[in-house]
Each structure stands twice: as structure tokens, then as C-alpha cells.
Write a structure and sequence with these properties.
The complex is a heterodimer. By secondary structure, chain A is mainly α. Chain A has a domain of 39 residues. Chain A is flat. The two termini of chain A are 41 Å apart. Chain B is globular. Chain B is an alpha/beta fold. The chains are: A mainly alpha, B alpha/beta. At the A-B interface, helix 1 and helix 2 of A face helix 9, helix 10, helix 11, helix 12 and helix 13 of B.
Chain lengths: 95, 493
């Protein structure tokens, strides 16, 4: 599997990371090195082996479906880069 | 008492209880040592006011005669732990200025037990790295030195390792996703333990790869590891993977008696290119355990070779998902936007400015392996291989093995910048002996047992059965006693 500049551009877009056009070829080549390393996994016979979902046998614990938290608007907004009138502010999303 | 910063947790606890010294005195000695150690780059946010207030409160508790073991013990806290009102930025630009409104479960438990926070410790950005060089603060430096080069303390818990080895604090918290406690411990001649997955709550610790991350103690010896682990672990309803199991008395398990225990030596860990010094360290350690009455058996963990490639699918996949939260909206950095920039540009510019190159690389690799068409070929295949890696360990333990002895790292500490031109895979190989343990969710401990020809510390790793940290610590304690590693770095900073 070889990653070209176009694929690198698409992955950067999916990851929402701006990558300059001139940096794409180097990025693609780094991906290829890492994916080449990962390709070794194809040597392993995984027929009939379940993908691991939990490393310990325990089930995820459940709790009662009740409100246990809330009324912390100021604390929630405290670290926001732009908070106004009790909301997170972002650039215009809809026209 | 002469040099208070050199005390162990156990030594400080006993001295404080006897009234020979106060927490305020030890804390002040550590703060002074930290002030003189900026060249190590270990402490990146210092909290002397908090430390002195906590020390005073601890002294009052000790005087009242009802203080837990960690009471009054000055610690360094890895920057990955959220600490209320104190910068907690995972060594990333994207969390610049972030001051959590809450306390992580682990730091909360330590503070409830009376521990003192001296400040936040350097690390690789989002715990992604093996040399502390991906940090936004610049690298932490190893207090060990053999020539004029600055050496890495390892990573990602590099600041923790450097601070403990240089006696800036009595102990430190670390986290370990692929070896980030054990590799830096080995590089700096200290002891570091990664607990069984689920033993320590992950709540309030900045997430990297949630199915692999565990926090643990980094200390001057095995006894301190036992004492500090005790205070860190226990069930937490806020982490759904936290185990609801009783916590044994780890320190009480340190009898040093390992007669009749079976220690496995995995043949797949003898790798091409392993330096002769590491081979010798390993066979010396094996002999020490044999002399202590343990039975040594050769074992096979056939999928070892595939652990690193599986890890470099699973960890980036989970990271790409976990790090999606850094969007410039709710906390941390937001890029300056140009006229006409919309929300997508805000995300893309914020993440390009906020994440360093290694984090960007892993987020994008993770995005790729999870993307439509590749999910089965990469991600699901890696998870199947992970099942096989765990099965290897299950089989060994089912055959009667009590613990497994391996090298902790493939080399001693290397120089800062020496890997800069190497391809990323070369750096990833640092975790070759440790990463299997995270994939299998097992407890592992690195213990310093020798030095290389240049005089740099080297460590061995012991891997235990799930939830059997007490037994693992006891075997590590015996190994520590037999190895008698007492060397300290000469102060140059």
C-alpha cells in the first residue's frame, strides 16, 4: 500500500489539520514508512480470532440513568477561547 | 538531617512520624533543589505556594497522629494530570493557558492522603514520544551524563524520571501507554511501575490511547513504589474501566521471599542487535532470582514481534479519536482567523498550530487506519493480533509462570537530538520490550540493576499476572536487593 500526495491531503483534511501543499510529499513518505512497518501484521494468521474489545474480562459497569452533575456553566466556560453570554462562540456556521 | 531531598518516601514517612523532620522542611529543601535545577527542564510549572500550604496541613495531620503513609511527601506531578487551577497542558501548545476546573482522581487521592505537589513535570506532547523531545516546553534532560552531551531521560514521563533521579522530589506520578513509565525509569536508574489496566483510575488524566493508558508511581526504590501505588489505586465510578477490586497492602507484601516462584524468560525477547551489555544484565538478573530460590523456565511469547506494529495502529487510532476534542472551541488554543475563515478553517488552523509534528503524524496515521476501506485491514487486524499477544501471556501464566523477566530497554539513554534525523520507527523501537505489557493489560515494573560500560544506568523489567502487583513488587524487591544498585548521578546542573 503506497500513499501518494493526494491521499496525504485527504487524510489531513479528515483529521482537520492544515498541511501546506509543499509539506504533503514529505508527509506521504512518512506515512509510507509507518504503514510499511505496520504491514508486518499481514504475516499473522488471525483466522477465527476475535478483535479485542476489552483487555480485562470485566463488563463495563452501568450506573443509574439519573442526573448526577450540572449547574456549572461558569466552570464549563472558564477555559473557552471565546465565550459570550453563557455560550461558546465560534465563527458563523450557517449562512 | 543532612540532605532531605535524598530521602525515600518510606524514610521520610518514618522520620516525620518520629518528629525528626517536618514536611515543611523536606518540601522547602525540594523547592530549593528545583530552583537550582532549571538546566534539567524537569519542572515546567512550579507550585511553591500550594506545596508549602499542603506541607503545613500535612504537618498538622502528622502531629495529630493520624496520617497516611503519603502524608507530607513532596511529589512532582506529570503535566498530563489535570490539577485544579494549575496549568495542565500535556506539554502541548494546544492546551496553553488551560487550567482545569477539576482534579484528576489520582492527584485527588494523593492530596487526600496528604501528599504535597511541588509542580508539574515535563513530558512528551500528549505522552507521544520516547525521549521527551516532542514537548512544547523543550526537552527534559537526564541528570546522568558521561561526556559533554545532554542525554535524554526517556519518555514520555521524562520530566518525572529526571526529577526523581536528580532528587528534586521524593517521587513522581507517571503514565504509561507503551512504556512511558518503565523506559524513562530505566534510563535514569529509578523504579517505575505500570499497574494492571483498570487498577488506577484514568479520570482527569489527558487521554492518549484509552485502552492502553495507565498511571503509576515513579520512585527511588521498590518499597516507595508499593507505598505510592497504594495511595493511587482503587475503584472510581467516574472511569468505567476502573476495576472494583480490593486493594491489597502492597508494602506488606515485600517479604523478599520468592522461594519456589516460577520466573519465565521469554526467548522472543532475545532480539538481533541487542547490545551484549543488555544480554549480560538480563542473564545476571536471571541468576539473582535463581539464587534467591526462584525456578527459572524458558517460555515462548510467539507474537512478540507483532506488538509494536499492532501498537502503532491501535494507539494512533485511539489518539485520533481522543484528540478530536481539541477544536479551539471549549478550551486551550484557538488560531487567529483571517477574514472569511469559517469553522473548518478554525479547526484546521488551530490544530496545525496547536499540535507538534509527532502528534500531527499520529493523529493522521490514526485517521487513516480508521478511514473507510482500511478499518478492517489495519484496525481490526491489529485488534486481532492484540488478542493473540494477550493469549501468549495467558498461556504462560496458565503454565505456572508467576512473573516474566526481560530487559526494560534495548539500550541505555541516548543523546538529545541524536534521533532527530532517524525515521520515526527507530524511535518507536525504544518500546520493544514494554509495549507488549500495555497491549495485554498487565502490570510491569522497571528496576535498575546495573550500568553500561560508560556508567549509565540499565534496568530490567518484571511482568506480573493481572491484578498481582503485590507479588510482582515482592519479586522486584528481591531483584533490587540482589542487584544492590545505589549509584546516583553526579550533580552538574
Amino acid at each position: 500500500m503506497s500513499i501518494d500526495t493526494e491521499t496525504a491531503r485527504r487524510v489531513a483534511k479528515l483529521a482537520r489539520i492544515e498541511v501546506a501543499e509543499e509539506a504533503l510529499p514529505a508527509l506521504a513518505s512518512e506515512f509510507n514508512a509507518i504503514l510499511g512497518f505496520i504491514e508486518q501484521l499481514n504475516e499473522v494468521d488471525v483466522d477465527g480470532v476475535e478483535p479485542m474489545t476489552s483487555v480485562t474480562p470485566q463488563r463495563l459497569t452501568r450506573r443509574a440513568d439519573v442526573v448526577t452533575d450540572g449547574n456549572q456553566q461558569a466552570a464549563v466556560l472558564k477555559n473557552a477561547p471565546d465565550a459570550r453570554e453563557g455560550f461558546f462562540a465560534v465563527p458563523k456556521v450557517v449562512e | 538531617m543532612s540532605d532531605l531531598t535524598k530521602l525515600t518516601i518510606a524514610g521520610a514517612r518514618d522520620a516525620m512520624r518520629k518528629g525528626d523532620v517536618t514536611s515543611a522542611e523536606i518540601t522547602q529543601a525540594c523547592l530549593t533543589a528545583i530552583e537550582g535545577a532549571d538546566a534539567l527542564g524537569a519542572f515546567v510549572h512550579k507550585t511553591p505556594e500550594i506545596a508549602l500550604a499542603q506541607a503545613q496541613a500535612a504537618d498538622a495531620r502528622i502531629k495529630a497522629g493520624d496520617a497516611p503513609a503519603m502524608c507530607g511527601i513532596p511529589l512532582g506531578i506529570k503535566d498530563l494530570f489535570c490539577t485544579k487551577g494549575v496549568p495542565s497542558q500535556a506539554a502541548s501548545r494546544i492546551l496553553e493557558g488551560f487550567k482545569p476546573e477539576y482534579e484528576s482522581t489520582v492527584t485527588g487521592k494523593l492530596f487526600d492522603a496528604g501528599a504535597v505537589m511541588l509542580g508539574k513535570l515535563n513530558m512528551d506532547e500528549f505522552a507521544m514520544g520516547s525521549s521527551n523531545e516532542t514537548s512544547v516546553y523543550g526537552p527534559a534532560i537526564n541528570p546522568w551524563k558521561v561526556d559533554d552531551r545532554n542525554l535524554t531521560p526517556g519518555g514520555s514521563s521524562g520530566g518525572s524520571a529526571s526529577a526523581v533521579a536528580a532528587d528534586l522530589c521524593l517521587a513522581a506520578t507517571g503514565t504509561d501507554t507503551g512504556g512511558s513509565i518503565r523506559q524513562p525509569a530505566a534510563f535514569t536508574g529509578i523504579t517505575g511501575l505500570k499497574p494492571t489496566y483498570g487498577r488506577v483510575s484514568r479520570w482527569g488524566i489527558v487521554a492518549f490511547a484509552s485502552s492502553l493508558d495507565q498511571a503509576g508511581p515513579m520512585t527511588k526504590d521498590v518499597r516507595d513504589c508499593a507505598i505510592m501505588l497504594q495511595a493511587m489505586c482503587g475503584h472510581d465510578a467516574r472511569d468505567s474501566t476502573s476495576a472494583d477490586l480490593p486493594v491489597p497492602d502492597f508494602e506488606a507484601a515485600l517479604t523478599g521471599d520468592i522461594k519456589g516462584k516460577t520466573i519465565g524468560i521469554p526467548r522472543e525477547y532475545r532480539m538481533d542487535g541487542t547490545p551484549a551489555e543488555i544480554e549480560k544484565l538480563w542473564s545476571d538478573g536471571t541468576a539473582m532470582l535463581r539464587d534467591a530460590g526462584a525456578k527459572i523456565v524458558d517460555i515462548s511469547l510467539p507474537h512478540t514481534k507483532y506488538a509494536l506494529p499492532a501498537y502503532y495502529v491501535i494507539a494512533p487510532a485511539e489518539a485520533s479519536s481522543n484528540l478530536a476534542r481539541y477544536d479551539g472551541v471549549r478550551f486551550g488554543h484557538r488560531a487567529k482567523l483571517g477574514a472569511g475563515d469559517g469553522i473548518t478553517q478554525m479547526y484546521e488552523k488551530t490544530r496545525a498550530e496547536g499540535f507538534g509534528p509527532e502528534v500531527q503524524r499520529r493523529v493522521m496515521v490514526g485517521t487513516y487506519v480508521l478511514s473507510a476501506g482500511f478499518y478492517d485491514a489495519y484496525y481490526n487486524r491489529a485488534r486481532r493480533v492484540r488478542t493473540l499477544i494477550k493469549r501468549d501471556f495467558d498461556d504462560a501464566f496458565a503454565a505456572g509462570v508467576d512473573a516474566i523477566l526481560t530487559p526494560a530497554t534495548p539500550s541505555a539513554a541516548f543523546g538529545i537530538g541524536e534521533m532527530a534525523d532517524a525515521d520515526p520507527i527507530k524511535m518507536y523501537l525504544n518500546d520493544v520490550f514494554t509495549v507488549t505489557v500495555n497491549l495485554a493489560g498487565l502490570p510491569g515494573i522497571a528496576v535498575p540493576t546495573g550500568r553500561d560500560a560508560q556508567g549509565l544506568p540499565l534496568g530490567l523489567q518484571l511482568i506480573g499476572r493481572p491484578w498481582e502487583e503485590a507479588e510482582l513488587l515482592n519479586i522486584a524487591y528481591r531483584l533490587e536487593t540482589a542487584a544492590g544498585f545505589v549509584a546516583k548521578p553526579a550533580k552538574w546542573w
